[in-house]
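Lab notebook: predicted structure, single chain.

Context: the supervisor wants predicted structures on file for every construct in the current expression panel, including those that have not yet been purified. This is the next one on the list. No modifications to the sequence; it matches the entry in the shared construct table.
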Amino acid sequence: MNDVSRSDDEMEGRKSGKRRQVAALPWRGEGDALRILLVSSRETRRWVIPKGWPMKGRTDPQAAAQEAYEEAGLKGAIAPRPFGEYPYLKRLKNGQARMVKVDVYPLEVKETLAAWPEQGQRTLEWMTPVEAALAVQEPELRDLIARFAGVDLASDHDMPAKAPTPVRVAFQRLRRRVTALWGRYRR
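Prediction complete. Output recorded below exactly as produced.
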């Protein structure tokens, strides 16, 4: 896991029950060719952008770019300032959930690598801005993507199916395990 640096603001945020992360908003192309890259989360498999905790010895934009490399094998030009922010509910390892604020730094993708640290743990997909905005679960992230791309979501776009809940994901995993065990037992 990444080394974490904690600013006075973040420590104050921890006291109030809020935390802060940084994220990259990977993009390429222009106009009608503009595409946004989304990655699946490891636990719930919902569509998200590469994100993580601030890193000791790195600026927030550098940490966001590092997350894009680790989660999706991307290299490029990261914006020096966040384009916006969004909140989401983060499930912690101890089972608790905390509200986390995410600062989002646009990343113009210049290179996609053949291998990266989390390869095989996530699904990656380049989407149109409308597809990307409608695929994410967090309304504030949806609006941020739409604002970044300059698209209007007020028209009659079909909303994608909601992301599976953690309980449903756990049930699906259990069903796969039971099916695998049953196959071994029947031999």
